[in-house]
Specification:
It is a single chain. This protein is of the alpha+beta class and 211 residues long. It has 6 helices and 9 strands. It folds into 2 domains: 102 residues, no CATH class; 85 residues. 34% of the residues lie in helices and 23% in strands.
């Protein structure tokens, strides 16, 4: 669903808590988020101003799916789906109180965008002897140190492939970590970031191919 669809879905919500599964988390938006915070548990909400809403804001909360039973204990489930839950709120949602609550939530700062092209990498030196030694020169703006890896029995082309994959992956990961705005991110957003970062990593098998 889009941000606008979440707004429209919640516009007529008077007594329900609607949760959407997004990865490893359940998320609630707008009035559902308000009901969760005021009737179940005071999670820290996130409010973002979105261009798709013509400058309007969308407020949300989230919690790990692994804590579902503990967080939702005692609530009546009205609808159950693989990626959507509808629960009965413990009391009606007062529109005026929701609007005041949403207005009190500070806007999250936009995340900075960075590009990997900002790194300047020195060309690698690859030996072609039976016991290949690959010297990796650290990127600029990263503490200068050398890491040597011995790739016994691998041809030079495979060593180069390993080098290219390892270095490009390291640059991408370092850039994403450096660009992540930790100060303005919620614990849930930090967990999502780590989860997404782990998914983006691949390992090499003994032949140097990605698996």
């Amino acid at each position: 669903m889009t941000s606008r669809e979440f707004i429209q879905e919640e516009a007529g919500n008077e007594d329900r808590i609607v949760l959407y599964r997004e990865g490893l988390f359940w998320k609630a938006y707008e009035r559902s988020a308000y009901a969760v915070c005021t009737q179940i548990r005071p999670f820290k909400p996130t409010k973002r101003s979105l261009k798709t809403l013509d400058g309007g804001a969308l407020v949300s909360i989230g919690f790990p799916c692994s804590t579902e039973n503990r967080v939702l204990d005692g609530l009546t489930c009205l609808e159950t789906g693989a990626d959507r839950l509808v629960l009965s709120a413990r009391r009606p949602i007062a529109v005026g109180e929701f609007e005041a609550w949403k207005a009190s939530v500070p806007l999250a700062l936009p995340r900075r965008k960075t590009v990997a092209e900002g790194f300047r990498v020195s060309p690698p030196h690859v030996c072609t002897t039976a016991s290949e030694v690959v010297t990796v020169v650290a990127c600029d703006d990263v503490p200068a140190e050398q890491e040597q890896k011995t790739l016994t029995g691998l041809p030079a082309a495979t060593a180069q492939t390993n080098y290219d994959f390892t270095l490009s992956t390291a640059i991408t990961v370092a850039e994403r970590v450096r660009g992540f705005d930790l100060a303005s991110s919620t614990p849930m957003e930090c967990m999502l970031f780590i989860s997404d970062l782990k998914k983006s990593l691949s390992t090499l098998d003994d032949r140097g191919s990605i698996r």
